[in-house]
Write a structure and sequence with these properties.
The protein is an alpha/beta fold. Helix content is 28%, strand content 27%. It is globular, with a radius of gyration of 18 Å. It binds cytidine-5'-triphosphate and calcium ion.
Amino acid sequence: ESKLSNSHLLEGKRVIVTAGGTRESIDPVRYISNNSSGKMGYAIADAAINAGADVTLISAPSKLTANDKARLISVNSSEDMENAIKDNFYQSDILIMAAAVSDYKPVSYSDQKIKKNDDNLFIKLSRTSDILKEIAKIKSDQFVVGFAAETQNLIENAKSKLQHKNLDMLVANDVSGDKVGFNSDNNKVYFIDNNGIISQTGIESKQKISNDLIKLISERIDK
Ligand code: CTP
Ligand code: CA
């Protein structure tokens, strides 16, 4: 239903959607990652395609199959994802950053598989670059949407992310429970822009939330 009503909303728009959880390698067989399934980003890619957009899906590892109408760029690490976004950002109208990007990566990569030795192993981590913050520096008139995954002070934290990452819209979701959010088929979100909370959803499918998001974006961009 909303699929039909959304058709043409993003006709001719070039949209980058990121999805999945990045992997930061420790050694040839190990990495640091997170519970992201990619479901939210893949659903957004579908919704944007149904709305007539030309979609580039930049995906960290996910078990899902990408929409065959999307241009799929598969990446592993946060650094790979940042490079892929930068390669495509200038020729895009909208960036929707649904990926769960690792905040830290190992300071050094071991070329050889790490052998078990001592009782404790310490892996030193350093911050990854904040992709959205880097993108904000090169942004012209692209419409940029971020996600905020929070377990506490949802609205407060989300609003501050919207501001300091210079976003046009933010989708805030509470990831403390297991009924919604990471890995779930459903989500419950607040849509926020620089005027404040736009709307709050109930527990809805990621398809429905994606269609709502596409509609809200289309109302806020120049046609
Ligand atoms: N993000 C990013 N680059 C990172 C980390 C996150 O671009 N290195 C993006 C995510 O894709 C998301 C938004 O920033 O769209 C918010 O991610 P989130 O993890 O909620 O916030 P952080 O800024 O990483 O802060 P924290 O995890 O400490 O809450
Ligand atoms: Ca984070």
